[in-house]
Amino acid sequence: MPGWLKVVLAMVAVGVIGLGVIVGGTVWFVGAHKDEIMGAAKETSAAGETFGRSHDAQGCLDEGLRRLAGVDGLTEEVKNNVWTSACLKVSRKTPGFCDGVPSTAEILGTVTWRKARCDAHAELDGQRCQRFMAVWQGECQRGGAR
Length: 146
Fold this sequence. Notes:
Layout (H helix, E strand, L loop, with lengths): L2 H50 L4 H13 L4 H17 L16 H13 L6 H17 L4
Protein backbone atom coordinates (compact mmCIF):
# COMPACT_ATOMS: atom_id res chain seq x y z
CA MET A 1 0.00 0.00 0.00
CA PRO A 2 1.46 3.39 -0.99
CA GLY A 3 2.41 5.78 1.79
CA TRP A 4 0.07 8.53 0.62
CA LEU A 5 -2.89 6.13 0.79
CA LYS A 6 -2.02 5.25 4.38
CA VAL A 7 -2.00 8.95 5.24
CA VAL A 8 -5.37 9.52 3.56
CA LEU A 9 -6.93 6.51 5.30
CA ALA A 10 -5.53 7.63 8.65
CA MET A 11 -6.98 11.13 8.14
CA VAL A 12 -10.38 9.68 7.23
CA ALA A 13 -10.30 7.43 10.31
CA VAL A 14 -9.43 10.35 12.58
CA GLY A 15 -12.22 12.42 11.01
CA VAL A 16 -14.80 9.67 11.52
CA ILE A 17 -13.72 9.14 15.13
CA GLY A 18 -13.77 12.90 15.78
CA LEU A 19 -17.25 13.22 14.30
CA GLY A 20 -18.42 10.30 16.44
CA VAL A 21 -17.07 11.98 19.58
CA ILE A 22 -18.82 15.28 18.71
CA VAL A 23 -22.16 13.61 17.97
CA GLY A 24 -21.91 11.37 21.03
CA GLY A 25 -20.99 14.30 23.25
CA THR A 26 -23.89 16.36 21.95
CA VAL A 27 -26.37 13.53 22.49
CA TRP A 28 -25.05 12.99 26.02
CA PHE A 29 -25.16 16.72 26.87
CA VAL A 30 -28.71 17.21 25.61
CA GLY A 31 -29.86 14.06 27.39
CA ALA A 32 -28.25 15.13 30.64
CA HIS A 33 -29.64 18.67 30.49
CA LYS A 34 -32.94 18.23 28.65
CA ASP A 35 -35.12 19.25 31.62
CA GLU A 36 -33.07 22.40 32.11
CA ILE A 37 -33.18 23.19 28.37
CA MET A 38 -36.92 22.58 28.13
CA GLY A 39 -37.59 24.64 31.26
CA ALA A 40 -35.64 27.58 29.86
CA ALA A 41 -37.47 27.29 26.53
CA LYS A 42 -40.89 27.29 28.24
CA GLU A 43 -39.93 30.24 30.43
CA THR A 44 -38.64 32.22 27.45
CA SER A 45 -41.72 31.38 25.41
CA ALA A 46 -44.05 32.42 28.25
CA ALA A 47 -42.23 35.76 28.57
CA GLY A 48 -42.63 36.36 24.83
CA GLU A 49 -46.33 35.53 25.00
CA THR A 50 -46.81 37.91 27.93
CA PHE A 51 -45.24 40.75 25.97
CA GLY A 52 -47.12 39.81 22.80
CA ARG A 53 -50.54 39.92 24.44
CA SER A 54 -50.15 43.67 24.95
CA HIS A 55 -48.38 44.54 21.68
CA ASP A 56 -48.86 44.20 17.97
CA ALA A 57 -46.64 42.15 15.66
CA GLN A 58 -44.46 45.15 14.82
CA GLY A 59 -43.93 45.78 18.54
CA CYS A 60 -42.77 42.18 19.00
CA LEU A 61 -40.39 42.48 16.06
CA ASP A 62 -38.98 45.80 17.27
CA GLU A 63 -38.45 44.46 20.79
CA GLY A 64 -36.86 41.28 19.43
CA LEU A 65 -34.45 43.37 17.36
CA ARG A 66 -33.65 45.57 20.36
CA ARG A 67 -32.94 42.51 22.48
CA LEU A 68 -30.89 40.91 19.69
CA ALA A 69 -28.45 43.82 19.78
CA GLY A 70 -27.47 42.83 23.35
CA VAL A 71 -27.28 39.08 22.73
CA ASP A 72 -23.98 37.36 23.40
CA GLY A 73 -23.63 33.81 22.12
CA LEU A 74 -25.72 31.25 20.30
CA THR A 75 -27.75 30.20 23.34
CA GLU A 76 -28.92 33.75 23.98
CA GLU A 77 -29.65 34.20 20.27
CA VAL A 78 -31.84 31.09 20.23
CA LYS A 79 -33.67 32.29 23.36
CA ASN A 80 -34.34 35.63 21.69
CA ASN A 81 -35.69 33.92 18.58
CA VAL A 82 -37.95 31.69 20.72
CA TRP A 83 -39.13 34.78 22.63
CA THR A 84 -39.87 36.68 19.40
CA SER A 85 -41.66 33.75 17.80
CA ALA A 86 -43.88 33.27 20.87
CA CYS A 87 -44.57 37.01 20.99
CA LEU A 88 -45.59 37.12 17.33
CA LYS A 89 -47.93 34.15 17.69
CA VAL A 90 -50.15 35.90 20.26
CA SER A 91 -49.71 39.56 19.29
CA ARG A 92 -52.29 41.76 17.62
CA LYS A 93 -51.96 41.77 13.88
CA THR A 94 -50.15 44.66 12.22
CA PRO A 95 -51.57 45.67 8.84
CA GLY A 96 -48.90 45.29 6.15
CA PHE A 97 -46.53 43.42 8.49
CA CYS A 98 -45.95 40.66 5.93
CA ASP A 99 -46.09 42.79 2.78
CA GLY A 100 -43.05 41.98 0.65
CA VAL A 101 -41.90 39.09 2.86
CA PRO A 102 -41.03 36.22 0.51
CA SER A 103 -41.81 32.56 1.06
CA THR A 104 -38.90 30.56 2.44
CA ALA A 105 -39.18 28.45 -0.72
CA GLU A 106 -38.03 31.49 -2.73
CA ILE A 107 -34.33 31.13 -2.00
CA LEU A 108 -33.02 34.11 -3.97
CA GLY A 109 -35.88 36.29 -2.76
CA THR A 110 -35.20 35.21 0.82
CA VAL A 111 -31.50 36.02 0.63
CA THR A 112 -32.16 39.42 -0.94
CA TRP A 113 -34.96 40.28 1.51
CA ARG A 114 -33.01 39.25 4.61
CA LYS A 115 -29.89 41.12 3.49
CA ALA A 116 -31.90 44.29 2.84
CA ARG A 117 -33.54 44.09 6.29
CA CYS A 118 -30.21 43.45 8.01
CA ASP A 119 -28.47 46.24 6.11
CA ALA A 120 -31.01 48.57 7.75
CA HIS A 121 -29.79 47.30 11.15
CA ALA A 122 -26.05 47.75 10.81
CA GLU A 123 -25.61 47.53 14.59
CA LEU A 124 -26.47 43.81 14.45
CA ASP A 125 -24.14 40.97 13.52
CA GLY A 126 -24.96 39.97 9.94
CA GLN A 127 -25.39 36.22 10.49
CA ARG A 128 -27.30 36.71 13.73
CA CYS A 129 -29.61 39.20 12.04
CA GLN A 130 -30.19 36.87 9.08
CA ARG A 131 -31.26 34.07 11.45
CA PHE A 132 -33.55 36.48 13.32
CA MET A 133 -35.23 37.52 10.07
CA ALA A 134 -36.13 33.85 9.58
CA VAL A 135 -38.47 34.21 12.60
CA TRP A 136 -40.31 37.10 10.93
CA GLN A 137 -40.41 35.26 7.63
CA GLY A 138 -41.64 32.05 9.27
CA GLU A 139 -44.45 33.84 11.07
CA CYS A 140 -45.58 35.46 7.82
CA GLN A 141 -45.41 32.15 6.01
CA ARG A 142 -47.47 30.55 8.77
CA GLY A 143 -50.03 33.30 8.19
CA GLY A 144 -50.18 34.45 11.77
CA ALA A 145 -49.08 38.08 11.62
CA ARG A 146 -50.91 39.23 8.49
